[in-house]
Design brief:
The N and C termini lie far apart (127 Å). The longest helix is centred in the N-terminal third of the chain and has 37 residues. By secondary structure, the chain is an all-alpha fold.
Length: 303
C-alpha cells in the first residue's frame, strides 16, 4: 500500500492559485473557439450572398430603417421626359392618321412587286436607304439643328425645300397632313416656349419629318434618338400597310421589322452627317408606285 504521508503530500501540491490559472486557460480556449465559429459563420454568409445574390443580414445588425433605394434607371429627369415624349409622339396610337397611308405600297402589291415577306423587306429597304426614308431623315436633322441654333432663315429654307421634294400629289397629301396633325396635337398637349415661333417661321405647309424635327428640338430632345424613333415609326407604318395588303401574319411582320434594324441605324447615321446637298433619291419604281396609286381602281389607303 502507498504511504499515507506521500498521498497527503501529493494532494497538498494542488493550490488554489493553480486552480484559478487552469480556469482562466479553459475560459480563454472556449472564447477562442466561439470567436472562430462566429467568424466562420459570417464568412460563409458573405460567400453565399456574393454567389447567389441573396442578402443575409445578421440579426444583431437589423434595424427598423427601410433599405436605401437603388436607382439603376440610368436616366435623369430630362432624359426620362424625352423618352416618354418620343414613345408617345411616334407611337402608332398618336393620332396623325399614319394608318391611312401606304406610301405607294398598295400599288406595288397590286403590280406584283411585293408578294411576300422577302419582297416586302427588299422594297422597304430601298425606300429607307435610297428613297424617301433617307430624304425625310435629312430634313428632320436639318430642321432640328435650325431650331437649336435659333436660325429662322435656315428653318424656313428647310421647310420650303422639304415641301417641294415629294414626288407625287398623294405623297404631298400624306406628309403634309401628318405634319399638320403632329404639330397641332403636340402643341395642344405638350406646348413649350419657342414652338409657336418656330412653326410660324416655316411660312407654309410643314411636312411630317420637319414637324418632328421642330417639336423635338423645341423640347430639347437630342437629335439622334429623335431620328431613330422617327425612322422606326416610319418603317413600322410601312410594314403595317404591307402586312394588310400582301397579307402577312404578325410574326412575319416582326421579322421584317427585325431585318430592317441595320438599315434604320445606317440611314440615321448617314442623315446625321449629311447636308441638304446630299439629298437625292434612286427609287424610281417607288415614285412610280406613288404616282400610279392616284388612279388605282381598288384602294384601301389614301396614298
Amino acid at each position: 500500500m502507498p504511504d499515507r504521508r506521500m498521498v497527503m503530500r501529493t494532494r497538498s501540491t494542488v493550490t488554489p492559485a493553480m486552480i484559478m490559472r487552469m480556469a482562466t486557460i479553459i475560459i480563454t480556449i472556449m472564447a477562442l473557439i466561439t470567436i472562430t465559429m462566429i467568424t466562420t459563420t459570417i464568412t460563409t454568409m458573405i460567400t453565399i450572398t456574393a454567389v447567389t445574390g441573396i442578402t443575409a443580414t445578421p440579426m444583431l445588425m437589423t434595424t427598423n430603417d427601410p433599405p436605401p433605394v437603388d436607382d439603376r434607371s440610368g436616366m435623369n429627369e430630362a432624359e426620362a421626359a424625352a423618352l416618354y415624349r418620343l414613345l408617345t409622339w411616334l407611337s402608332p396610337a398618336f393620332p396623325v392618321g399614319g394608318f391611312s397611308y401606304s406610301s405607294g405600297i398598295e400599288w406595288a402589291v397590286e403590280a406584283g412587286d411585293i408578294q411576300d415577306r422577302a419582297s416586302l423587306r427588299d422594297w422597304l429597304a430601298a425606300m429607307l436607304a435610297d428613297g424617301s426614308g433617307f430624304c425625310d431623315a435629312v430634313f428632320l436633322a436639318q430642321a432640328h439643328r435650325a431650331v437649336e441654333a435659333d436660325d429662322d432663315g435656315a428653318l424656313h429654307g428647310v421647310a420650303e425645300l422639304a415641301a417641294a421634294f415629294v414626288p407625287s400629289r398623294e405623297r404631298q397629301l400624306e406628309t403634309s397632313t401628318q405634319g399638320r396633325a403632329f404639330i397641332e396635337i403636340a402643341r395642344a398637349a405638350w406646348h413649350c416656349d419657342g414652338l409657336d415661333q418656330a412653326v410660324a417661321q416655316c411660312g407654309g405647309a410643314i411636312v411630317y419629318p420637319v414637324a418632328v424635327g421642330i417639336v423635338s428640338a423645341a423640347h430639347a430632345i437630342p437629335l439622334a434618338p429623335s431620328l431613330h424613333a422617327f425612322l422606326h415609326a416610319l418603317v413600322s407604318n410601312w410594314i403595317s400597310a404591307g402586312a394588310r395588303l400582301v397579307p402577312l401574319g404578325q410574326t412575319d411582320s416582326q421579322r421584317v421589322l427585325a431585318a430592317l434594324e441595320p438599315e434604320v441605324a445606317a440611314t440615321a447615321k448617314r442623315a446625321i452627317g449629311a447636308t441638304l446637298d446630299d439629298l437625292g433619291s434612286a427609287t424610281f419604281r417607288v415614285d412610280l408606285a406613288s404616282l400610279r396609286h392616284e388612279t388605282q381602281y381598288t384602294r384601301l389607303f389614301r396614298s
